[in-house]
Amino acid sequence: MEVGMKRTDYLSWDEYFMGIALLAGLRSKDPGTQVGACIVSQKNKILSIGYNGMPTGCSDDEMPWDRENENPLQTKYMYVCHAELNAILNNAGASLQGAKLYVSLFPCNDCAKAIIQSGIKEVIYQCDKYADMPPYIASKRMLDMAGVAYRQLPHSGRTVTLEL
Ligand SMILES: Nc1nc(=O)n([C@H]2C[C@H](O)[C@@H](COP(=O)(O)O)O2)cc1CO
Ligand SMILES: [Zn+2]
């Protein structure tokens, strides 16, 4: 008996989870860099999602979004919560032991600490545009020491258009 063939152009797991991270990043109010993160179990179940934004209760409209200001209290860096940290903290109580983190931008040193302490064992990232800066060198040093693997997911060349 003839059977239908399955689709062949479905998303790979890596494309799917990075796509979800990128979609989450579109929620960010940061005019400079929008980052998304998606945490996935070893069995490829989504455990949590996050994007960079102001802490809950801290108004997006009152907080500064500038990179630079003579007054450091008027820069976003004092306040913004990174996508990876939001994803780690937002998970609905599930253990993150052995989980994978998909993120559009390589984690900073502070997020690396949270990644290690939460039990995440692999980081899959798309972009590493700040690689030469000390926070990212420190991040890799800690991830290496703690046995957290990381790998870049190269652009697959696919573009996905969503009609909303
Ligand atoms: N891995 C990361 N996850 C993040 O969520 N972020 C956030 C913090 C800021 O809101 C923004 C970076 O701003 P900029 O310096 O590129 O204008 O992205 C930044 C990094 C880079 O370490
Ligand atoms: Zn960070």
How would you summarize the topology of this molecule?
Layout: H1 13-25, E1 36-40, E2 46-51, H2 83-90, E3 100-105, H3 109-118, E4 122-127, H4 134-146, E5 149-152
Parallel strand pairs: 3-4, 4-5
Antiparallel strand pairs: 1-2, 1-3
Helix pairs in contact: 3-4
Residues 30, 32-33, 35, 52, 67, 76, 80, 82-84, 105-108, 111, 130 line the site of 2'-deoxy-5-(hydroxymethyl)cytidine 5'-(dihydrogen phosphate) (5HC).
Explain briefly what this protein structure is.
This protein is of the alpha/beta class and 164 residues long. 27% of the residues lie in helices and 16% in strands.
Helical fraction equals 25-40%
Hetero compounds: 2'-deoxy-5-(hydroxymethyl)cytidine 5'-(dihydrogen phosphate), zinc ion
The number of E-state strands comes to 5
* Main sheet strand line-up: 2-1-3-4-5
How would you spell out the order of helices and strands?
A: HEEHEHEHE
Structural class: alpha/beta
Rough outline: globular
- N-C termini distance: 40 Å
Please describe the biggest sheet, giving its number of strands, its sense, and whether it closes into a barrel.
5 strands, mixed
What is the typical, i.e. mean, pLDDT? 97
Low-confidence stretches: none
SS field, number of helical segments? 4
- What share of residues are in beta strands? 15-25%
Radius of gyration: 17 Å
Cofactor: Zn(2+)
GO cellular component, one term: cytoplasm
Family: Belongs to the cytidine and deoxycytidylate deaminase family.
Keywords: Hydrolase, Metal-binding, Nucleotide biosynthesis, Zinc
